[in-house]
Amino acid sequence: MVELKTDTSIDAMYEAGQIVGRALTAVREAADVGVSLLELDEIAHDVLRRAGAGSPFLGYRPSFAPTPFPAVICASVNDAIVHGIPTGYRLRDGDLVSMDFGAELGGWVGDSAISFIVGKPRAADVRLVETAERALAAGIEAAVVGNRIGDIAHAIGSVCRAEGYGIPDGFGGHGVGRRMHEDPPVPNEGRPGRGLPLRHGMVLAIEPMLIGGGTDGYHAAPDGWTLRTDDGSRAAHAEHTVAITDAGPRILTAR
């Protein structure tokens, strides 16, 4: 069931989204060669504490997970696509890092992700990250009243495939509101003009995930959470929480 949010509720979600934006900015600024993923998790956790907000990630346990998620950020490095668990791993020169983060404030959730390169970038990684951001922008541009979920999926998939990148099947965006994952699912590839019509008050987490090697295969790591590319190539992830409004898409997690 898809819940349509009131304008007041969307404003409240914007407040949660701004906490997400501040935390991701703080993590990005702190990420450097030698900094551990656990240290970045603590920085994000501190942003939540100072804002009086909670984490929808910490303790989250969907049906596929062997254990509750133990952190407030998902930290995915190099061949990890999403859901990476922060560890004592210290960032190295040239690492490609994807950070996914959520905040809950007043019963409403914001969810966003960024990818970036630590130290000296490789040209191929720069292109991969830039394409993820372009795919996200294309998906947001298609998130207008009168379009359908398939239009968002097609916009994202077209950007990714045109650059020769893979798309992990079965993982994509989702509705968001009182809970981090709500209806409807938002695939990262699909046919235009198909799927649920977009209406004022729908709020979606739009999140392209790209596999640099061009194949779509992935597998779960032994921790049961981290998804890694089958071909060992690097991956990128970009995400915003977006409200569908009569005035156009409103990005609630803008940084």
Describe what you observe in this structure:
- This is Methionine aminopeptidase.
- A divalent metal cation 1 binds at residues 100, 111, 239.
- It comes from Streptomyces sporangiiformans.
- This protein has a single domain (7-251), classed as Creatinase/methionine aminopeptidase superfamily (Creatine Amidinohydrolase).
- Helix content is 28%, strand content 23%.
- The chain has helices at residues 7-30, 37-51, 123-141, 149-162, and strands at 73-77, 80-82, 96-105, 108-117, 173-175, 182-186, 203-206, 209-211, 218-220, 227-229, 235-237, 240-243, 250-251.
- A hairpin with a 6-residue loop joins strand 5 (173-175) and strand 6.
- The chain is of the alpha+beta class and 255 residues long.
- The protein has a 5-stranded antiparallel β-sheet.
- The chain has 4 helices and 13 strands.
Characteristics:
Creatine Amidinohydrolase, five-stranded antiparallel beta sheet, 255 residues, alpha+beta
Relative helix content: 25-40%
CATH architectural arrangement: Alpha-Beta Complex
CATH topology: Creatine Amidinohydrolase
How are the strands ordered across the major sheet? 6-5-7-12-13
Number of strands: 13
Rough outline: globular
Q: Name the poorly predicted regions.
A: none
What's the total helix number? 4
Q: SSE order, as H and E?
A: HHEEEEHHEEEEEEEEE
- Rg from C-alpha positions? 17 Å
What is the CA-CA span between the terminal residues? 30 Å
Catalytic activity: Release of N-terminal amino acids, preferentially methionine, from peptides and arylamides
EC number: 3.4.11.18
InterPro entries: Creatinase/aminopeptidase-like (IPR036005), Pept_M24 (IPR000994), Pept_M24_MAP (IPR001714), Pept_M24A_MAP1 (IPR002467)
Cofactor: Co(2+); Zn(2+); Mn(2+); Fe(2+)
